[in-house]
Amino acid sequence: MHNNYIIVTGSAGFIGFSLCRELLKEGHKVIGIDNFNDYYLPVLKEGRAELLRKNKNYIEKRVDLDDYKGLAAVFKEYKIETVCNLAAQAGVRYSIDHPFVYEKSNVSGFLNILELVRHFEVPRLVYASSSSVYGGNKKVPFSEADPVDNPVSLYAATKKADELMAHCYSHLYGFQSIGLRFFTVYGPWGRPDMALWLFTEAITSGKPIKVFNYGNMKRDFTYIDDIISGVKASLFKNGLKNYEVFNLGNNNTEQLLDMISVIENELGIEAEKEMLPLQPGDVPATYADIEKAQAKLGFKPKTKIEAGIPQFIQWYKQHSSLVEKIKSSR
To answer: In the 8-state DSSP scheme, what is residue 257?
Structure first.
């Protein structure tokens, strides 16, 4: 058993919840921090949090990352072993119309976390970055050694800012900071603003699906269980440098239309497709070079979309009342 606590921010979010569940299963003590915001219907976050609360080693704190005093109170009350900052305002498209939400959560909120990790002498901070930082890069697969100074959305710019701030704090104050560039994460309990959920919802409702860039989109779809194995390695692996950034992706970019055909096959329904141009802030392709994560974290993604998408659809069908509430809130 572990005496110290691991803080996971964004604990009611998709990746945060999945990480908490895995850590608790392994006997860790976890403090989950989340503000349960309404970027998507909080009923999904409440459903995730309800499962976590059943474990006696789980403590939930409803605090906003922008609330320094509220966060500091948590650090004062418990002995913190590691911090995993997964709380963020997500979504590329939403950042076009709601820029200040991103600054508050992803920049000033992250600065609060860095300050508290520093003052409470937490030895390691793991935090979520994003494949979006690669922006308009043409060279694929994307490598951590590539320049990332041409973001095409404010969301991407805030994530790059996080990496720069983490580098500065690690350099000045000596704690380890490990940034994780996630590539299109999907699976059970996933986000309702992501393509897999939106497509499944539309197809089962007999509505057309919106296919952007006329279907000429490639994504490195990464199954949640594979992502969590990489996050856990980042939390506990010895021999990492003071400042690291890793790609966590499937290393296997898929055509969007192929992903849609897997959904159609699993549902047994053909989708009606509305072909549309590329949206502002979106990139046509993401593809992760994961050599560094393989070498240093032992990261080995195993799940192909043909296996992962049916897992999500099975979950989606089993949680019909939850799904209906989200559908009716749109």
So the answer is: H
CB-based contact 288:133 (threshold 8 Å): no
What pLDDT is recorded for position 119?
98
Predicted pLDDT of residue 1: 43
Q: Residues of the chain whose pLDDT is less than 70?
A: 1-3
Active-site annotation, residues: 155
Give residue for tokens 């856990």: 232
- Cα–Cα distance between 135 and 148 in angstroms, integer? 7
Q: According to the model, what pLDDT value does residue 91 have?
A: 82
What are the structure tokens assigned to 81, written together? 């072993």
Query: 3-state DSSP helix/strand/coil percent for the chain, to nearest 5?
Result: 45, 20, 35
- Tell me what pLDDT residue 90 has: 86
Res 136: pLDDT = 84
Average pLDDT, the chain: 96
Question: What pLDDT is stored for residue 282 in this prediction?
Answer: 86
Burial of 308 (0-12, 13-18, 19+ CB in 10 A): buried
283 beta partners: none
Separation CA 280–CA 315 (nearest Å):
31
Q: What is the DSSP string of 51-81?
A: HHHTSTTEEEEE--TT-HHHHHHHHHHS-EE
3-state secondary structure of 31: strand
CATH number 3.90.550.10 is the correct assignment for the domain at 5-185+223-251+282-302: no
Please tell me the number of Cα atoms within 13 Å of 195 on its side-chain side: 22
Ranges of each domain in the chain: 5-185+223-251+282-302
Cα–Cα dist 102/98, whole Å: 7
DSSP letters, 117-181, are: HHHTT-SEEEEEEEGGGGTT--SSSB-TTS-----SSHHHHHHHHHHHHHHHHHHHH--EEEEEE
Which amino acid, one-letter code, is at 93? R
